[in-house]
Amino acid sequence: MNGIIFISLVLNVVCIYFIYSLWKKIDENNKNAESTDHIEELLELFSQEMRYENERLHKLISDFSSKNEQDRHKIHEKTIETGIETINSITLNEENDEVHIESETKPDTHKVIILAKQGYNAEQIAKMLNRGKGEIELLLKFYA
């Protein structure tokens, strides 16, 4: 009889130990869940902040791009105006840059040759004179 009481007492102690152990594990899981919730909130805030920064960066890039395009367009217009003014003000016979052209050539051909000697490429000359790029390249091959 004493043996049964002793076994019962040992089993009760073992059960209490397992109950205490399970209670500790449940408590740790609750703490982990709380820290997981906290980490999820931090990640969500971080992703919102990154989204805001990306939108701001995208806006800056698009503003810069449009401003750059406008500046490029203004510079191109000034280049064309300068080229046309130069064409109108230059004579064919300059000190170091005499151009011998046959009398049968057109005035546009003279302008093309002058602009080519000033360093403009065929595409720029074509835009200045409202001609095709291929036409200007052909004239440059024949007369330059």
Structure overview:
The protein has four helices and no strands. It is an all-alpha fold. The radius of gyration is 43 Å and the shape is rod-shaped. Helix 1 (2-89) packs across helix 3 (122-129) and helix 2 (107-117) crosses helix 4. The chain has helices at residues 2-89, 107-117, 122-129, 133-143. The N and C termini lie far apart (126 Å).
Distance linking N and C termini: 126 Å
Order of helices and strands: HHHH
Strand percentage: under 5%
* Class of secondary structure makeup: mainly alpha
Number of helices: 4
Shape assignment: rod-shaped
Low-pLDDT residue spans: 91-104
Nutshell version of this structure?
This protein has helices at 2-89, 107-117, 122-129, 133-143.
